[in-house]
Each structure stands twice: as structure tokens, then as C-alpha cells.
Amino acid sequence: MQNNISIIGLGKLGLCFALTLEKAGYNILGLDINPEYVKEINEKTLISHEPDVENFLKKSTNFRATTSIEETIQFSNIIFVVVATPSLPSGRYDHSQIDGLIQKLEALGRQVDQKHFIVCCTTLPGYCDSIKDKLSSLNYSVSYNPEFIAQGTILKDQASPDMVLIGQANDEIGQIIEDIYKKHTINNPKICRMTPIEAEITKLSLNCFLTTKIAFANMIGDLVKASGGNPDLVLSAIGSDSRIGPKYLKYGYGYGGPCFPRDNRALAIYANDKNCASDISTATDTSNKKHLDFMLTSFKDISATIDGVTYKPNSMILEESQQLAYAVGLAKKGIKVTIKDNPIVLKKVKEIYGDLFTYAI
Ligand SMILES: NC(=O)c1ccc[n+]([C@@H]2O[C@H](COP(=O)([O-])OP(=O)(O)OC[C@H]3O[C@@H](n4cnc5c(N)ncnc54)[C@H](O)[C@@H]3O)[C@@H](O)[C@H]2O)c1
Fold it and tell me: Which residue has a Cα nearest atom 17 of ligand 1?
């Protein structure tokens, strides 16, 4: 039992976490609601775009998937929850997959052994506290433990995080989570333990800071370019100051993808809920859009080739991609745009935009 860990939600993040923990020596039972997918995992026929996932899965001997919640709860007292929390049109997170899961736990009734419900999903601060009473009545503690990973390097990022963030229900579970990370990470990361709400705020604030840094770099870069100078020289000089640092201080496309834009906006929403200022998040979002406008208005040729339209190189993700938004903006200005990317990405773009572009591998 001690060495058993249950993981609920075997999507992009949950599956990688399961494989990472299995590789570190734990017995893992993963729950997912999609029976076909569970079958593919158990038969090791799953096809994944995430590097090394298929390899890890093929080599794994102590990881199994199930569709049975009862079996998952019995398997371990340590339960990591990695279901999806997509953004609603309002910018808030949709917590309904976690809520639905809690309903199923209610149906199972109060547990005899103390269970630990550890939320790894992105949540609006306060969400973990809001489910605490209900889960406590069923004998579960509630902790928050998000991961700072990027798609395309999830397994690598999980092995070597800069920091491990633990919003602990109490010291005992905080220590258990810390020990799990000490066992599977290879770089002795800084462990930051705090309350769940502090950890929820930390998770969003960290991404908000990065988006602000990127937007700042692009704002200064646009200014330098408009003045006839070289943005790279200026930003490199600024980044040489050790109080600032060069990371995320490059001139280029704005930030995009499935995490940065929505986490930044959600922090502003939470700040408004608490009657606190959200000006930096809001200005960052606006600045990111204005940078795209600047790129479009400063383009003076009659044709363009965009090499890579996903939100970052070597990913398949088009969500909030500034590269794609740039290509669309140019094409809509009447410029002949050729898009280069891998065939899977090109197929996706073609399905949405048809002959707005020409396509090249
Ligand atoms: N993917 C990332 O790069 C990333 C990065 C940082 C944070 N996160 C956060 O991690 C969480 C998970 O993200 P993801 O990208 O892995 O999502 P995903 O959509 O890829 O996976 C979610 C999985 O949960 C399963 N599921 C849904 N309800 C379930 C239930 N009741 N029981 C069992 N399984 C259930 C789904 O079938 C799916 O396989 C989200 O909150 C996301 O914001 C993701």
C-alpha cells in the first residue's frame, strides 16, 4: 500500500506523471473515463506525440490503467487528480471534471482509512478550500500540487523541475508529497510548501510573471525596432543585469499556448474577485495583442513564409498561437502567406483555414 499511488485522469499530464512515478519505483494505478484509451494503455499500443511516452509505457511493469473508481480509491491512500480544467468564456476555469469526480467519491461513501486527494489541475485560487469540507466528511484531505511542465518536454520537465510546489492540507501529507518528489526528481529541486490557497496563487502568479516578462521584452523590442535599432542588442544588454536575467527576455512572437494566456487572465479575475488590483495581468494581455498588431503593421513585403505555426517549436498545439495569428493577420491583409510545418499540423490548419494559405512541409 505504502508504495502504491493512484492517479485520476491519464491525459497529457496525468499519463506522464504516472509513467514518471512508475519509473521511480512506485506501483501506479491510473483511472480514466475513456475505456478505449485505458485499453490502449494496458495493451501498450498507445500512440503519443509526447517524446518518450511510448518508450516509458512499453518499459513499465508496475503501471496499470482502469475505469473503476472504486478500485482506484482502494488501491492507495495517495490520490493525485489530473483531470482537465478548461477555461470558460469568462476566463474562469471549468472545475466540473473535478466536481464530477467528487460526486462519484460521495457515492462511494465515507472511507475507513484516511485518503489524500491531491489536486494537480490548474484551479482558480480558493477552489481547493471550497471542496475541503465535503471531502473531509468523506475522510479525504485536500492538497494542491501543480506541475510546471511544457508539452513536448513533459517527462523531462517532471524529472528536473526548478521548484516543487506543495499546497499541503497538513504537515504529514506535505511530507509524503515532498518524499515522492525527492524520489522521482534527479536535480534536487527547491521544495516550496505552503497552504493550498497560497500554492494556487503561486501557480498562477509564476505564469503571470513570465507572460509579463515576455510582453515587456516585446514592448521594448517594438520600440527599438520603430526607432531603427536592433531589439536583440538592447534586450541582451538588459538581460545581462543579474537582477533581471536573460530568460524569456527575447524579441519574437508573443506568448500563447494552453497555459500562459489563460493563467494570466485567471489571475486578473481572481484579483478582481478579491477587490485587488489586476492591472499588470490585464496590461500584459493587452500588450501581447498590441505586439501582434505592431508585427502586422510593420510587415511591408508582398509575400511571407511562416516557418512553424504552433505556439512554440516542436509542438502540435495551435491554441492561442501567436505564430498562427500572425499568419492569419498577414493573409487577411492580402499578403501571400506560405505556412511550413509538419504534416499533422498543416492538416489541422488546412481544416480551419483552407486555401487562405499555401502549405509546405
Ligand atoms: N498539459 C499541460 O501542458 C499542462 C500544463 C500545466 C498544467 N496542466 C493542468 O493539468 C490538468 C490536466 O491537463 P491535461 O492537459 O493533462 O488534460 P487532458 O484533457 O489531456 O486530460 C484529462 C484526462 O482526464 C480524464 N478524465 C476526465 N474526467 C475524469 C474522471 N472523472 N475520472 C477519470 N478520468 C477523467 C480525461 O478522459 C482525460 O484523459 C489541467 O488542469 C491543466 O490545466 C496541464
Answer: 84
